[in-house]
Amino acid sequence: MLIIPEIFLAICAVIILFISPFLKKEAFLKIGYITLIVLFVSQFFILKDIFYSQLIFDGFFIIDSFGSFLKSLILIGAGLIIFFYLTVSNPKSLKRPEFSILFLISVVGMLLMISSNNLLSLFMSMELQSLALYILVSFSRDDFISSEAGVKYFIIGSLSTCIFLFGTSLIYGLVGSTSFNEISLFMSDLYSTPTMLIVGLIFILVSLSLKISAAPFHMWTPDVYQGAPSIVTTLLSTLPKIAAFGVLIRLLVYPFGEIIIDWGKILIILSITSMLIGSLGALRQTDLKRLMAYSTINHIGFILMALIPGSEDGITSICIYLIFYITMNLGMFLFILNMQRDQISVSSIKDLSGLYKTQPLMAGCLSIILFSMAGIPPMAGFIGKLIILNIIIDNNLFFLAIVAVLTSVIAAFYYIRLIKSIFFDDPIDDLDNISSNHSKYMLCGFAFFNLTVVLYPQFFLNLCASITLSLFAVK
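The structure assignment produced for this chain is given below.
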């Protein structure tokens, strides 16, 4: 029997909302662990039907292996982030049961985004995810910076919504339908592409670019990453990116696959600008969360590069890179969550000075993750970048490969600058030792994964190649 995990999660979110007022003592912990269990059960439902393929709800949503894989990745990431929330020291303002409920609602929106097979269902899913994230970003009500970040994110998100709806209305006016299937049939019957259709697609791409922080639509990212609570920044930098890339891939490869030449040029511009701004913008940053914002922009540019050919190999390489990206980011943010001095959270780069002298194991694990983010062999980040570069070179996009390599060299500078600070700078004032054993074990686990991927890269190639088949079976 097919059990749709989004419906299960939504029902559980409503039930948790009703029972939360009756849990008095440490309600946020109890609700957090219930949320963790719910995410685990949902993962079982997805894995049970991972090879299942069917259109549901009158074609508004689709279940297939590609979507199930990305959903599984999101649920794993969501489970880890909730576990971080439960095990690290959080500000008092975050210790409320509403946090886990809003988190669960945003995850439901992300899963629905990936399964969307219609522009209307995609819009509703994006709004469900975004509305929960707006609240989470400004969750620390007494913190002015958090409130400011929430307002900025809300304004940019509202602008993104308007742009998406305008693009959708143009496409509906031409095609007469918002269904991906109908758009695909319409495109296959055309001898020449109407200009208005391309304009509509450009508006939708601009809206999605705002969601994934692709330059030049990245303006909100550094401020929101810095202002939001660190656990929310961890969420923003990982899960919504996976959902948005799932949408981009499904939208461009299937209904608009016939005009790959047109949207390929747009992606080239987005990719190059993202890699340049992401690598150059990080050079002058002094705050780790702002640095991670520019790092995200740089990685987004790299991932977009693999989508340009619109090929099965390109989508496979994106799926592999997303696996490595989420482990690198979660590892880095797990350390940022535990960065404290006198039990007060800090995030300045200079606070890393001399970390090796006081916490050598944590310094070693953090360095491995940073080397991986820089793309230094034989780390996971290097494997991911190498696979994408091979795809780009095979498609004769040499100029794009040159830009990618040059920006990777620039990006390596600011990652290695952090490692230099950790090992060779004199400590200004020691950070508190990480008290949570859970955090220590998980940080070691992320580092071990990034270090040992080189021993079994074929596993990820075979896994992602098999799940990509379902996406191209409908073409």
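Interim note for the steering committee: The mean pLDDT is 90. The two ends are 27 Å apart (CA to CA).
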